[in-house]
Amino acid sequence: MSGTASAVKYRAPAKVNVSLEVVGRRPDGYHEIVSVMQTVSLSDEIEIIDGSEILFTCSEPGLGGNDNLVPRAARLLQSASRSTEGAQMRLVKSIPHGAGLGGGSSDAATVLRVLNDRWDLGLSLAQLVGLGARLGSDVPFFLHGGSALVTGRGEFVDPLPTSKPVWYALIKPPISVPTSTVFNALLPSDWTDGMVTRDIACGMSKGASVQLGVNGLQHTLFTIFPATRECFEEVSQAAPGRAFISGSGPTIAVLCGTRNEAKQVISAVANEDRWCAIVQSTGRNDA
Ligand code: C5P
User: Fold this and answer.
1) Which residues are catalytic?
2) If you measure from the C-alpha of residue 177 to the centroid of ligand 1, how many angstroms do you get, rounded to a whole number?
3) pTM recorded for the entire structure
4) pLDDT in tens, 73-116
């Protein structure tokens, strides 16, 4: 958080899913997942000025509508708490959209957290998680931040200790992937029992460093968007055994021990069409 007395800037971090298993499909159409997620140092910024109504603008004009999760989160909080407060909010995007990095959900979580404080509502984290789950499956995770085992459709978040920070090289091929497109094309053959991911979480809860797992959406992503497979194979050649798809993609993350290692991966695979970044895992919001 930083800024002047009247306008304050808040960060909304991106995430990676170091492992993501789909356990099955629920009657409501959503899927049960088991995932280890980590927030990272890439973030959007939300500038907030107190106001009497909810006003919203965005650095990306295409995302500046009233259906953006930022004004939706503010309206949901306003109606749930029967508050008459408002806020003037400006979202400056750095996290690419449709990337599997959770940008929109993180923006929503930041708005819930920050306006709960600024409007002096006193809602508990559990109450915010309940509201957040109505906005998007990843919002509960972002209300905690750091590292966590995430289950259900995303609403159950078990925080994990953030051991030594790790680095990730992020590479996004030039397409945007709607999460629903990938989830809706899953087949029962893509489902697994979640144990690979639970084992990683169990190790981390005992202080082990983060390990890569599996991604149950990857096969479907590669089938629908073959360009993501090509990019993934190229990155995997540059960093054998360390590349994974984050969430529903198409961003490919590479687990690295040092910033320099991440830089080497990016230099090997960067081209003008690909968005690339070097990030570090970050701790919990309340840490
Ligand atoms: O919850 P969110 O709006 O982010 O989800 C976008 C879409 O992804 C949902 O409409 C659903 O099709 C799919 N989804 C799912 N199971 C989840 C999370 C998302 O099927 N656990």
Assistant:
1) 15, 138
2) 13
3) 0.96
4) 999 999 999 999 999 999 999 999 999 999 999 999 999 999 99
